[in-house]
Each structure stands twice: as structure tokens, then as C-alpha cells.
Amino acid sequence: MDEEMARESFTKRHRYLNIVLAVSAYWVCSISFVFLNKYLLSGKDLKLDAPLFVTWYQCVVTVLLCFLLSWISKKCPKLINFPQMSPGTLDQKISREVLPLSVVFVGMIAFNNLCLKYVGVSFYYIGRSLTTVFNVVCVYVILGQTTSFRAIGCCLLIIFGFFMGVDQEGVSGSLSIIGVVYGVLASLCVALNAIYTQKLLPTVGDSIWRLTLYNNLNATILFLPFMLFNGEYGEVFYFERLFDPVFWGLMTLGGLFGFCMGYVTGWQIQATSSLTHNISGTAKAAAQTVMAVLWWHEAKSFMWWVSNAVVLLGSAAYTYFRKLEMDQRSESSSSHSDRSDRRPLMSTKVDDEESSI
Q1: What is the CA radius of gyration of the chain?
Q2: Which of 25, 50, 164, 268 could link 307 by a cystine bridge, Cβ 3.0 to 4.6 Å?
Q3: Count of Cβ atoms closer than 10 Å to residue 216 Cβ
Q4: Where is the composition biased (Basic and acidic residues) (predicted)?
């Protein structure tokens, strides 16, 4: 009996430790990624006006890491379990099928970084806070799925907080209109990326890492004409720190953080739940905002903080209500299934459960 209780206690401690490590890794990677990208995109001592080049290089790092981990997995399968991927096994047909998602993916990461270039980290969360709203709109327009009035009310609260935050940023004199526009476009692309990812995962055998590889491979090609149009080739060629190993080290570290975000996000969801992951992301955004204000010694008004609180409250409430709806839908599906088992001659149509986006 004592041995069984000791084993159960050890299992609980191991589970709690796994949760703490997963959440901590998500927070560290996400916050570090944002702050490092802010420096690479608009650091005063860096003076590199090439946001698309920075984003393109991070895609290159992701592709190389995918191939590296695949090679390690092939040589040492007991050390790491990673999908077998190599340049020789790439399928052009799959690459073409994934291309629409890749276009949205390029827009998402490009607009994210362009938003971060023109706005401060403290305003970054507000600038991209309309993702939930666009998610509701896109899910209805593309998938035909409706949302409850409670969830729509939360979206209206987020919109109110967004405009309040924009107004307060303007009052403080630090508002960048182009940065806000990029933030809105990034929010739209994030919502579309989640929907198209869900639709195209079966194309790559439901492997998120294969999809990551094809997405980033396509992105490395798609970014090239945009960098040319934006005049970034000359900017990079004449960059005074082009051969500085510290600069390339930071660039590679940014790519590494971007790659790790895919893993730590999945780890946190696996260790907790999709609801807890969204709550953790909301809390992380609040902590990130406070850290940015303290780091750059920014003076913010009371109403500015209220706008952040309104957006955070709306996002948290939306997550909670959507979770309740999904649970009710799941219970309804189970009850229909039970009745169908008892009456096998009757068919029952059950809507597919919406995945957390």
C-alpha cells in the first residue's frame, strides 16, 4: 500500500514538474523571441532597415533545423523521434498543394515583424489583438460555423479595447498608424493560417513538422521578390555589420526561437490543455507588456492600462465561453452516439468538433 502511494505521489510530482517546465519554456521562448525580434528589426545601434530579410533568414534557419533533426533522428532514432525528411524526399505536388497556406503564412510572419518594427513591444499585444475577432469572422465565412452571442460579445469587448488602446497610444504621441495597419493585417493572417493549417494537415500526413518544412521552404522562395520590391538587397549589401559574427549569431538565435515556438506550444498544450494554453498565452502577453514598459522606461496613462485590461479580459472570456461550447457539443455528440448505438437503424448527423485555434 505504501509503495503504491509512493508511486502515485511520484507520478503526480512528475506531472506537475512537466507542466511547470512546459509553461516556463513557452513563456521564455515566446517573450525572448519578441524582444530579440524587436532589436533585430528596429534596434538603434543595429540600423538595419530590412524586416523581410530578417524574416526570410528565420525561415531558412527553420528549414535547416528540420533537415538537421531529421538526419539526427535517422542516425540515432533512440535519441530523438523526428519525421524523416530530406531534400531528396521532398514532393513537389505537396509543395504546390501547401502553397496557398504558405502565402498566408508569409503574410502572417511578415506583417507580424513589420508591426513589431513600427510599434513598441508594450503596444504589440494590442496591435495584434484582433486575431480572435478575425478568427470568428473567417470561421463563419470559410467554414460556415456560427458562434454564440456570448463569444460575439467578447469579440466586441476586444474591439472596444483595441480602439481604446489605439486612442491612448495616440494621446501619448507614440502611435504608428502603419504599425497598427500591419498589426490588423497580421491578425487576419494569423486567423487564416490556423484555418488553412487545419484543412491542409492531412496533405502531409497530419505531421505538423512536415507542414512546417514545406511552409518555410515555400516562404524562402516567396520572400525573394518581396525583398527586391522593398529594396532590401541593397540595404543588406551595404549593411556595416554584414560580416559581424555577433549579428549573425543573434539572427540565428532568432530563427532558433522561432523554430522552438512550434515545439513548446505543442508541449504546453499536451502537458495541460488547449484552454490552459490560451490562458497561459493571455497571461504571457500581460507579463510581456509590463516587462516592455519597465525595460524601456515608458510612461503610460491609467486609461492605456485599462485598454490592455479590457483586451485581456475579452480574450480570456472568449476562450472560456468557447471551451464551454465545445464541451457541450462533445456531450451532445456522446449522447447522440449512445442513442444511435441503442437504435442502430436510425442515423444521427453530428457536427465535427471545432479544434482550438
Answers
A1: 22
A2: 164
A3: 26
A4: 327-344
Is the predicted pLDDT of residue 356 greater than 50, yes or no? Answer: no
Strand ranges (DSSP E) for the chain?
A: none
Nearest residue to 321 via CA among 150, 177, 83, 161: 150
Cα angle for residues 55, 126, 257 (degrees, 5° grid): 35
Q: How far is CA 216 from the centre of its chain?
A: 15
Alpha-carbon distance of 335 to 333, in angstroms, equals 6
DSSP code, position 244: -
Residue type, 145: Q
Residue range 164-170: average pLDDT? 93
DSSP state of 203: G
Nearest Cα to 298, choosing from 104, 123, 74? Answer: 123
Which of 272-276, 294-298, 322-326 has the highest mean predicted lDDT (pLDDT)?
A: 294-298
Q: Which three cell numbers stand for residue 355?
A: 479544434
**296 SS3 class:** coil
CA 255 to mean position of chain CA atoms = 14
CB 226 within 8 A of CB 55: no
DSSP 207-220: -HHHHHHHHHHHHH
- Nearest residue to 130 via CA among 183, 167, 166, 170: 183
Tell me the three cell numbers of residue 252: 540565428
Alpha carbons within 13 A on the beta-carbon side of 162: 21
Contacts of 264 (CB under 8 A, 6+ apart): 22, 25, 26, 29, 30
Dihedral sign from CA coordinates of 227, 45, 65, 280: negative
